[in-house]
Amino acid sequence: MAKADSMTFIDHEAPEVLLIFSYENDMTINSFEAAGTLFSIFSWGQMVHFLGPAVTIVPKEDKFHCEFSRSALEGVKASLIKFLAKLNGTNAQPDPSFGWNNATDPCQGGWKGVICDTQTNSSVRRIYLNQSSLSGVFDAASLCNVPPLASSLVHIKLDQNNIGGQLPAEIVNCKNLNRLLIRHNQFSGNLPDSLAMLNNLKRLDISYNSFSGSMPNMSRISGLSTFLAQYNKLTGEIPNFDLTNFEMFNVSFNDFTGAIPVKTGRFDQSSFMGNPGLCGPLLNRVCSLSSDDNIASHKDGVSKDDILMYSGYGLVGFVFLGLIIYKVGKRNKKNEKGDSINQVSSVDDGMEKPGEVSADYKIAASRSAENSATVSTSLIVLTSPVVNGFSFEDLLRAPAELIERGKHGSLYRVICENGLILAVKRIKGWAISSNEFKQRMQKIYQVTHPNVLSPLAFYCSKQEKLLVYEYQQYGSLHKFLHGTQTGQAFEWISRLNVAARIAEALAFMHQELRGDGIAHGNLKSSNVLFNKNMEPCISEYGLMVVDNNQDSSSSSSFSSPNAFKEDVYGFGVILLELLTGKLVQTNGIDLTTWVHSVVREEWTVEVFDKILISEGASEERMVNLLQVAIKCVHRSPENRPAMNQVAVMINTIKEEEDKSVTFEG
């Protein structure tokens, strides 16, 4: 047959999906396209075997045209049903409640967790079976060895099940996969080397499993932006990732050895902790000669000058430690001469900078302890397994690093001897009795919500108060929006999800604590933190900032009728930050004024973050969320909606978004 000839394959019984084939003189199929998706290369024999005999062949122009036969669709269904049966731990039919059966179409019959292309409604794009009580194995061959599925699948999400066994090497045949999320399962064995050949992969989460052995060289995947592998049993070296543009990265609590990656970006030592064999400047652990060899063995290895640099870091560390000892010694002498705690605090305010190891925190805390008649019971540990057996003395012994300084206190990161990392909020100038403070903290602790961080413990004296929280390594919403990443990877659906979760959590806290008059009091994007599962959480609830001109000795300042409406205003400003990507200048005034002026001039689209516009986010739903934000930041507190109303409005927008999911790749 000449090169200009072509064939049309038509199934007269049940045409389903148009396929376009390209070929050469030798009848080798270079590629074929289905509903805009490029499939793998096929030989003529493979193509005929795939289509089956029930076709009619007709010459037409310079391409092959064909349509799926009914048998091809049945093959896709059979493969999916087999996949779910294996996940269920059976080789028979899967659980009927999932709706995966031969009588219905995967894209039209309500198959649980199956999401198809919304434009053609004919190809399976995502499989979401997280939290589905699955306890079988991952049969990748059922999905990735079937051409239509292998080429159309972009997301596989199986989080929080009980799936065991190995991750099969056949996963590599799902070439267009860009998200593989299998955290919190029972996977074991080595990761397949083929995993590093998934060139379109963007997010890989294998955390909280039992994977072992060395890790494939995932650093070769140029578009990878999320890699989470904490709490496994992985060994060997960490590939030399360039973490500069990563959204999330964590390999903590494995058995890795050698040097950490050179370019760690915004990630700190918490992303690598729990691996005693790791070394590098970020960990304050000088690499040995053998580790230095490992550094040089990286593809983008470190030069001899870099090795000297590591040694220099160690020397600087010793010098810095000496300075701290000298500084502490001088202050102890001053204390012996009768200096008050306020004098120590004033020196602290002048010397301490974010990121420095703070001796002053320990001095101030220990001075307060000395002034207390009940040192052993000063740290009140609430009923939390995280800090069971943890004492006030443990807190004093632990080194503290200043993270943030505020008007009424400072936030420290404290690393305990057992590896536990805590966040300690030190509050000064809060004239509230110890008993009142204790009651307040216990009330807040008793009202639990998964998206609100509860205090683990607290300490109270006349001079200061300390609150202990579990440290959240991924930082704040403010950092995500305005930090080094400038929101580049913070997509619309993620922002909408943050808005919905925080609205629901704040509405819950308002409902439960309104009778006690306890609002958040200082809600802002830096007080929205991301936990280990990247879920947004409200922090520092109930630590209401009191202006100096208020009568801070009165508890009424903490239970103002407008306090809850002020929370609504703060939440509205957070919504504006999510939508615009812009910084708040002074209590949100500049941002809200700017938004109002732009909307008033009917240039609403100019408000939105250009990142969201370029991503193709729904303008209609962004406008709807903007309208909610404007209601929240109304000048008159009485005209602001209650948080439960706000939560309902945002959930409605989110439901509309979920119904019209657009697909990547």
TrEMBL record:
Transmembrane segments annotated in the record for this chain = 307-326
Q: Where does this polypeptide localize?
A: Membrane
Keywords (alphabetical) are: Glycoprotein, Kinase, Leucine-rich repeat, Membrane, Repeat, Signal, Transferase, Transmembrane, Transmembrane helix
Please list the residue ranges annotated as the Protein kinase domain.
397-653
List the record's Gene Ontology CC terms alphabetically.
membrane
Asked if Nucleotidyltransferase is a keyword of the record, the answer is no
Provide a Gene Ontology MF annotation, just one.
ATP binding
Record Pfam families: LRR_1 (PF00560), LRRNT_2 (PF08263), PK_Tyr_Ser-Thr (PF07714)
Taking the first listed entry, what is the main subcellular location of this protein, grouped into a coarse class? Answer: membrane
Q: Which PANTHER family match?
A: (WILD MALAYSIAN BANANA) HYPOTHETICAL PROTEIN (PTHR48007:SF79), LEUCINE-RICH REPEAT RECEPTOR-LIKE PROTEIN KINASE PXC1 (PTHR48007)
Name of the featured protein: Serine-threonine protein kinase, plant-type, putative
Taxonomic placement: Eukaryota, Viridiplantae, Streptophyta, Embryophyta, Tracheophyta
